[in-house]
Design a protein that fits this description.
The structure holds two protein chains of two kinds.
Chain A: E1 2-5, E2 10-13, E3 21-25, H1 32-40, E4 50-52, E5 55-59, E6 64-65, E7 73-76, H2 88-98, H3 103-116, H4 132-144, E8 150-154, H5 162-178, E9 182-187, H6 190-196, E10 199-204, E11 207-212, H7 214-219, H8 224-230, E12 233-246, E13 251-266, E14 271-274, E15 284-296, E16 299-306, E17 310-314, H9 316-321, E18 329-334, E19 339-342
Parallel strand pairs in A: 3-9, 3-10, 7-8, 8-9
Antiparallel strand pairs in A: 1-2, 4-5, 5-6, 10-11, 12-13, 13-19, 14-18, 15-16, 15-18, 16-17
Chain B: H1 10-33, H2 39-43, H3 46-79, H4 85-93, H5 100-111, H6 118-125, H7 133-158, H8 161-169, H9 174-202, H10 206-211, H11 222-231, H12 235-259
The chains are: A alpha+beta, B mainly alpha.
Chain lengths: 344, 263
């Protein structure tokens, strides 16, 4: 699937196999939702082509454009968009009725879909009287019940609170793996992408910046956005054997020999900080100033302004021990085997 | 959501009571002054029955016109993107604030026998509007339709268009989306607009008498008949006819309240 939309100038190639879940990950306003609207046919393409199962759905060059209601695609919207004047059952049956299923059969199928997702109790309720989690599951049932060839999910878990998220994420994963559809999931949550996606596509400003399995992408991020999501230090430079000459100044001794332009990833937990210069043999050691100290769960992240800038992860006890709150100078130390170097 | 209970405030209660009485006294006057003994005879005179018939026909017809022509306009005002939209809205809803008599004169100048539309229309087809029942319907539409347009426009604006996208994504064609999503969602506004328009048309006086005249049995609607009765010292008749309009209006308002918002 290729897609180009004029307004955002989104330009990407995207191929999804049946049964596969592709997670589109990107910052806000990077073109994720627009991609889904384009695939659904709700927003005309300026160029490119959409093909599904051998059939061309849209090709502006050949003046082909299949109306959204004629596409075998379902879209689950971020804000669910359940019809407020219909009950849960009628909401789920809506798509079946539109596709010509008789009322009785449609309602039976809808009831089964609701039961599968554990929300049969609210079948007769209107959306306004349901909880967020119930609405989410009704929306999921509504998107799945028509047995689409392509299922598009726009931030399916974003509107849920943390306590319901985990359970529903598992439910969604099972539902996606049971469906025979090709699935495209849009999210800005790394955990959703990793838990639900077989493959990840990172987009920024309408451009694909990285693709790969969740393991590949998280191990070797190619942009600051991904590095931030994963929570690792990403450094750029030029490698000369075991020396990495960093772009912003400074150099690091790394393990493997490499050459040319390179990216380096350092997990914050592998960065140790000291008030006095440590005498660790063979390590990279440099001095910086404490810029910020953040609590992340049960760990503390210390941002050290030096050459290079680095984030270290320490235990809360270290804040007291090293008096990190006072700011001031700090030594960072990274062992060469903690640095992963790879070509950009 | 629990609402905060309003504490009793004597000043507020007194002012509100005065307001209520201000509206109730005239109604009480009508009821008290009605010629109850011979009300049947008064309202079944030829003139009264003609006025009632004409009022019902003309008000229903202008409501139907509002549905046919007002709805598309409301749709474009709510959803369309075209230059001069504000001007179009202003012009088509102007009669809401225009004195109806002025509207009647304006109608005469456009659609009257010598009007710049009326004269060519007369020459080409022999159809003239003033002093005819269609003229009454035109006058009532001119005054009442803006209420329909403005109510339905705001109703359409309140419909989340993304729900229509959702319906499209579920396989609904444009007509199905309109029938099964847009229409049910805009229904309360549509009903309110229709009732409001009909009530306004039913009570129309100034534009009707100016444009369509006051011919008993042809253009004399209820408000006109009431005015004539009153000014020719047939007060009993005026009160009796007024009561009919009061009852009709009251039914409408109670019905409207039930349909839109808490009681």
């Amino acid at each position: 699937m290729q897609l180009r939309l004029s307004r955002l100038d989104l330009d990407m190639a995207l191929t999804v196999a049946a049964g596969e879940v592709v997670a589109l990950l990107g910052p806000n306003a990077s073109g994720k939702s627009t991609t889904l609207r384009g695939l659904m046919g709700l927003q005309p393409l300026a160029g490119g082509r959409v093909t599904l199962d051998g059939a061309v759905l849209e090709d502006p060059a050949r003046r082909i454009r299949v109306a959204p209601d004629k596409r075998p695609i379902s879209l689950m919207f971020q804000d669910y968009l359940l019809f407020p004047h219909l009950s849960a059952l009628e909401n789920v049956a809506f798509g079946l009725r539109c596709k010509g299923t008789g009322k009785k059969t449609a309602h039976e199928k809808a009831a089964r879909a609701l039961a599968t997702l554990g929300v049969d109790a609210v079948a007769e309720s209107r959306p306004e009287s349901m909880s967020g989690g119930q609405q989410q599951r009704v929306a999921m049932a509504r998107a799945l019940v028509t047995d689409p060839k392509l299922l598009l999910l726009d931030e399916p878990l974003a509107a849920l609170d943390a306590s319901t998220k985990t359970g529903i994420r598992r439910l969604l994963r099972d539902a996606l793996h049971q469906s025979r559809a090709a699935n495209v999931l849009v999210t800005h949550d790394l955990l959703d992408a990793v838990a639900l996606g077989d493959r990840m596509i990172i987009i920024e400003n309408g451009q694909v910046v990285q693709t790969g399995t969740p393991a590949e992408v998280t191990a070797r991020p190619r942009s600051d956005y991904v590095a931030d999501l994963v929570g690792v230090n990403l450094l750029r430079g030029t490698a000369h054997g075991t020396h990495l000459e960093l772009d912003g100044g400074g150099q690091l001794i790394c393990q493997g020999p490499a050459s040319g332009r390179a990216l380096a990833v350092i997990a914050p937990a592998r960065v140790s900080v000291h008030r006095k210069r440590p005498d660790t043999e063979g390590s990279n050691i440099w001095k910086g100033k404490i810029d910020a100290v953040d609590l992340m769960g049960d760990r503390v992240r210390v941002h050290v302004e030096g050459t290079p800038v680095i984030t270290a992860e320490v235990l809360p006890a270290a804040v007291d021990e090293l008096k990190l709150d006072d700011g001031g100078e700090l030594w960072a130390s990274v062992s060469p085997d903690a640095i992963t170097v790879y070509p950009p | 959501m629990p609402l905060r209970k309003q504490a009793f405030n004597p000043l507020l209660a007194c002012l509100a009571a005065v307001t209520v009485l201000f509206f109730v006294f005239p109604l009480a006057g009508l009821i008290g002054g009605a010629p109850w003994g011979r009300i049947g005879a008064v309202i079944t005179t030829r003139t009264s029955l003609d006025a009632l018939r004409l009022s019902i026909i003309a008000s229903l017809a202008s409501t139907a016109l509002a549905l046919c022509f007002g709805f598309p306009l409301a749709w474009l005002l709510a959803r369309g993107r075209f230059p001069g939209k504000g001007l179009v809205r202003g012009l088509t809803t102007l009669p809401m604030v225009l004195p109806p008599v002025v509207g009647g004169i304006a109608l005469l100048l456009a659609y009257g026998r010598r009007g710049f539309i009326g004269e060519p229309l007369d020459n080409a087809t022999g159809i003239t509007l003033p002093f005819t029942l269609p003229g009454v319907i035109v006058a009532e539409s001119f005054v009442a339709m803006p209420f329909f347009v403005i109510t339905v426009e705001s109703g359409l604006r309140a419909v989340n268009q993304k729900l229509e996208d959702a319906a499209r994504s579920l396989g609904a064609g444009r007509w199905t989306v309109f029938r099964r999503v847009t229409l049910p969602l805009v229904w309360p506004s549509l009903a309110a607009g229709t009732v409001l328009t009909w009530a306004r048309a039913l009570g129309e006086f100034g534009a009707t008498i100016t444009f369509a005249g006051n011919l008993p049995g042809v253009t004399q609607t209820m408000p006109l008949a009431i005015y004539i009765s009153q000014s020719s010292d047939r007060t009993d008749e005026a009160i009796a006819l007024s009561l009919i309009l009061v009852v009709v209006s009251l039914v409408v308002m109670v019905f409207r309240r039930d349909r839109s918002g808490p009681g």
